[in-house]
Amino acid sequence: MDLSKLTVIPIIIAVLLVPTFVHAQSADTIKEQIDASNAAIQKLKDEISQLQGQLNETSKQKQTFQSAVKELDLNIQKLTKSISLTQAQIKQKDEEIGDLGDNITDTSGKIGNSHEEVADSIRQLDAMDNESSAVMLLGGGTLSSFFDEAANLATVRQGLQLHIEDLSALKSNLVTSKTSAEDKRKELAGLQRKLATDKQGLSSARAEQSKLLAETQSKESQYQVVIAQKKAQEASFEADLSNYEAQLKLIVDPSSIPKGGALLQWPVDQPYITQYFGNTPFATANAQIYGGKGHNAIDLRALPGTPVKAARAGRVIGAGNTDLTCPNASYGKWVFIQHDNGLSTLYAHLSQINVSEGQTVSGGQVLGFSGSTGYATGPHLHFGVYSTSGSKVTSFPSKSCAGRIYTMPVADIKAYLNPLTYLPKL
């Protein structure tokens, strides 16, 4: 038997090992479903964009009970649309995977047919090789029949080569389809995780709305009373903190502080700064609150239910809720992360915390959701960057809420760093 025929054996074995898939729907039907999904997804994106525009306009208005309620209502509508969008994208991925499944099934069937054609060609070669040319001539065969047989043999071998090439191409197509299907499944898993996050965010936003209505009794006058109470509590807390930090005498190692660059990522999507670091106009106008030190972080617009993400991989040094010690006075629900580059980051005023002390987190991992716990006259994210060498999480007594103990991040004044030094430019 010709040794060249042995080259088909590995291909045949590989084909036999290929799994089969159940045919689900026709390609035309799936394409129609995918086109319909694309249209629905685009419509939802347009509606979300329109709601975001309304939210941007509302956030520019004077802070009143009416504007706060309107902002929360619009945000809940946007989050609800976002959930619908994610669900539509999940449906679309299911349809795309189904389409690929059909392609895999069809290709597997063609491979089976090609395998039979290869096997048939091999059987023909075997039959031709079993009778030698010498035996044919000595047995009475003519020279003409000898050349005819040789031509037939060449044709069969050529056909076998074509079948092998076809089989190889089909196998390559099958591998590509399977790889694409696996990628789609990973995308689907990511969308399913996003859906879970979206639902948590919506729940958080609704809770924030209920909290506002309960605190204000749906009255503008009561809303302004709540704001005034928070400002008074914060002024008292800042005095407590300043006194305690002065006693700590934490030592900052200047050599451990990175010079700058995009070492961190933004902790929220679509970042918009509402207050900068340092002696901002707001901090200067409210010196009684900031103790003349200026604002020790940046504030980012983050409506209730906005996912708050780790600015870099690191370890959660602490997570807590200062409202349990003294309501409305400080960071409320907070998370403090130590990174590998001499920096630590703080995420405050959260409505929900999804991580715990000692946990290792990856960059971009959801730590919780934004809110207005602690001293926050409206929902936002207080994002602070610290020199790790001059900061720590510790406990100290509260004078403003006598008999209570705060547990939270503290730092030497030189350890408070401008976050914009380490974030990508907007």
Report on this model:
The N terminus is likely disordered. It contains eight helices and twelve strands. It is an alpha+beta fold. Strands 1, 2, 3, 4, 5, 6, 7, 8, 9 and 12 form a ten-stranded antiparallel beta sheet that branches. It has a two-stranded antiparallel sheet with strand order 10-11.
Provide the fold topology.
Elements: H1 9-17, H2 27-59, H3 65-129, H4 133-138, H5 143-216, H6 220-248, E1 273-275, H7 281-285, H8 287-290, E2 298-301, E3 307-309, E4 314-321, E5 333-338, E6 343-353, E7 360-361, E8 366-370, E9 380-387, E10 391-398, E11 404-411, E12 416-417
Antiparallel strand pairs: 1-2, 2-9, 3-8, 4-5, 4-7, 5-6, 6-8, 6-9, 9-12, 10-11
Helix pairs in contact: 2-3, 3-5
Q: With helices defined by DSSP (H or I, 4 residues minimum), what is the helix count?
A: 8
Which fold name is given in CATH as the topology of the largest domain? Substrate Binding Domain Of Dnak, Chain:A, Domain 2
Question: Roughly how many Å is the radius of gyration?
Answer: 34 Å
| Uncertain segments | 1-24, 287-291
Broad CATH class of the largest domain: Mainly Alpha
The proportion of residues forming helix, as a percent range, comes to: 40-55%
Number of strands: 12
- Biggest sheet overview: 10 strands, antiparallel
Compute the average pLDDT. 81
The chain-level structural class is alpha+beta
Tally of domains: 2
Describe the global form. elongated
Span of the ends, CA to CA = 71 Å
- The CATH architecture designation of the largest domain is Up-down Bundle
How would you spell out the order of helices and strands? HHHHHHEHHEEEEEEEEEEE
Amount of beta strand? 15-25%
